[in-house]
Amino acid sequence: MSVKSILKFAEDEGAAYVNVRFTDLVGAWHHLTFPIEELSERSFEEGFGFDGSSLRGWASIHESDMLLVPDPYRYWLDPFMADKTLCLVADVVDPITKEGYWLDPRGVARRAESYLKFTGIADTANFGPEAEFFVFDDVRFHNDPNTAGYSLDHPEATWNSKGKEGAPSLGYHIRNKEGYVPLPPLDTLQDFRAEVANELKKAGIQVECHHHEVATAGQCEIDFRYSTLLGTADNLQIFKYTVRNVARRHGKGATFMPKPLYGDNGSGMHCHQSLWKNEKPLFAGDGYAGLSDTARWYIGGLLKHAAAIVAFAAPTTNSYKRLVPGFEAPVNLAYSARNRSAAIRIPMFSTNPKLKRLEFRPPDPSCNPYLAFSAMLLAGLDGIQNKLDPGEPLDKDIYDLAPEQLKDVPSLPGSLDESLAALEDDHAFLLKGDVFTPQLIERWITYKRDKEIQPLRMRPHPFEFGMYFDI
What we know:
The strands form 3 sheets. Strands 6, 9, 10, 11, 12, 13, 14, 15, 16 and 17 form a 10-stranded mixed beta sheet that branches. With 471 residues, the chain is an alpha+beta fold. Strand 9 and strand 10 (219-224) form a beta hairpin. It has helices spanning 3-13, 43-46, 105-119, 190-202, 229-249, 293-313, 369-385, 403-406, 416-425, 438-457, 462-468, and strands spanning 17-23, 29-35, 48-51, 65-77, 85-93, 124-136, 138-143, 148-153, 207-212, 219-224, 227-228, 253-255, 269-277, 280-281, 332-336, 342-345, 358-360.
């Protein structure tokens, strides 16, 4: 997309401001807003200056000055701001070296795509995530020295079947684990999801399907069209922003937290992925489930490095309240054409070679997509480069296997602490092509341990009072 066309679009639309967006290490989107007069052709070369010292996991005071350099391939108008505002996605650049900032996640994704082309294996990696989320009507939580707790509510929830004082109950409530694709009036969020889809279309994102998900209390899924690794990571940031702000427009709160409810399904983000070269799919073949050798080796890489991958793809302490063995979670490091409890599934909806892909199921939507997608790609490429055999597929129901059969099926780490330890032990594949750096990986591990694991470890949990107060 030419810079001139962006400037003309802003002028034709009467935009008053330009909103420049970037992603921090953890994966949150941030923005700066400038009067539209500050945007020129030079902005796409020289960027906009800002202070990055206060962002999570980022620079210290002595290297706080940064530049935001907009990427001209993507622009849209923000539908949630009162004044017409042009939106641009930016890379973070060091103002002294003029090179990408070493902790900019989008830079990692750029390097991953460059490395893919350098290998000669493929020229394009396509990703299609299924990011589930919850919508609540009321969200409350507190963490004080002497009290802690949370409260969530939604009219669909099974716990509201008894009704509330002073309010009628019409009897339409979704039982735990029975929320998959019901019609209204059980599904109260049909129009909400359609509104999200309409706003995404305005931003250039094509929605393919939306529906209620398995859990009670407002769990949803909205699937959008796949794109390149970098393009899909950008789209996922736009998607999460849109979901949250449509929810706020309706007086609701949306969360991509993996496991907000006890005793019901959590929110995952199954990641469909495929490699292409010269516009030809590389995963289609005549092997198991219609796979090529390239696809099987890619699977071998994902399975070998899965424990390290989830340090980025399931990156919160809450993630491992979803990834629990025995509860239909994709914790088993196996692949299958049908078994949804396996970490990797090969969708069989079509025999079209262009639709042949792999579905990596452990990730969840709390991840930083630029880092998570890059880690998955590098693991798959390592599998191809070393022709890693993934072994035989596991088409049996894993939960019906006897213990002696299941002992040979490895599983994912059981906590964020364990996944970070796996990343420490297995990250050489991430350093190829300088996609990740040892310094970035070290910063990630340190941040997660110091800012998330340790504070949680030191706090009493409300459930502990039920177990231990009278001990």
